[in-house]
Amino acid sequence: MSTSAGCCQSCLHYVFDYETTKTLVIPSIRLGCAFRFTQLLVVLYVVGYVCVVQKAYQETDSVISSVTTKVKGFALTNTSDMDPRFWDVADYVIPPQGDHSFFVMTNMVVTPEQTQTRCAELPSPSAICTDDCDCTDGHSDPRGNGIQSGLCVNYSSTVQTCQVLSWCPLEIDTELPQHALLAAAENFTVLIKNSVTYPKFNFHRRNILPHINSSYLKRCQFSRATDPDCPIFRLKDIVSEAGEEFQDMAVKAGKFSIVPTIVNLGAALSFLSLVPVVSDWIMLTCTKKKDLYGKLKATYLSEDAEAEAMSMGTSYGTQ
What we know:
Layout: H1 2-16, H2 29-53, E1 58-61, E2 64-72, E3 75-79, E4 82-87, H3 89-92, E5 115-120, E6 147-154, E7 160-168, E8 189-198, E9 203-206, H4 214-219, E10 232-234, H5 238-247, E11 253-256, H6 258-273, H7 275-285, H8 290-297, H9 303-318
C-alpha cells in the first residue's frame, strides 16, 4: 500500500511541481567567453547570412518576362562552288523564329547540284571494299550517307567504296572554308525587346524607354558611352554589351515586408535563447567544478527545507 501511495505521490510531483528559473552567477572568464562567443556566432548568422545574404526581411516575387528579337543585315558571297549570292535574314537566321533566342549562320559547306541518285560512298573503314561481296544491298550504315546498293565501285583511281543511294554528289563536311563564309555577320544588328513584370508588386519595366520612337530606332545603335538607351546591338558586341544590359532585369524581385521581418526576428530571438543551453552544457561537462555547479544549478524544495528556511528567517529577524 505504501509503495502504491509513493508512486502516486511521485507522479503528482512530476505533473504538478512548478519549476522556476534560478540565477547562478559564476565568476569564470573562460565560461563567460564561451557564452559571449556563442552569442556572437548567432548574431553574425542572423545579421550576416539571414539579413544580408538571404535578405529574409524581404517579400519576393517571381518574374514574368518576354523577349523579342529581330536581326538585320546583308551579305554577298562569291565562291568557286556557287555563283555570286545575296544573303538576307531569311537565309542566315535559322530557325526564322526561336523561343527567346536566335541563331545566325556564319559558315557552311556548299555542295551544288545534288540529286537523288547512286554514287560511291565517302571512304571510311565501314565503306571501303574490294568487290561486291563486301557490300550488302539495302544496308544502311548509321555513320554513312545512304543505303547501299550491293555494288563496289571506284571512288577514286586508288580507292573503292560501296555504292549508295543518296543525295549525290555526297557532301564532304570535313573540308570547311578557312574563312567564315558570312564573316560580315559580325556587323549585323539585332533589336532586342525585353519586358519584365512582377505581379505581386504591380511593377512593370521594359528596355524600350518612353522617349524611344520609331525614327530613333532607325538610326541608333547601342553604345555605352554615347547611346546607352538604344536596344539595337551589333552581333560582335552582343555577348558583352547586351548580357550586362539585361542582367538586372532578369533577377527575382523583393521589397521590405513587416511579416517576414517579424518572423525572422522571432527566429533570431529563439536562437539566442539557445545560447544559455549551450553554455550550461559546457559548464556541466567541460569545467573542473562541474560537480559543484551541478549541485548548485538545481535545488529541490521540500517541506522540511521550507520550514528550515522560515526558521532561519525568523531567527535572523529577532537578532
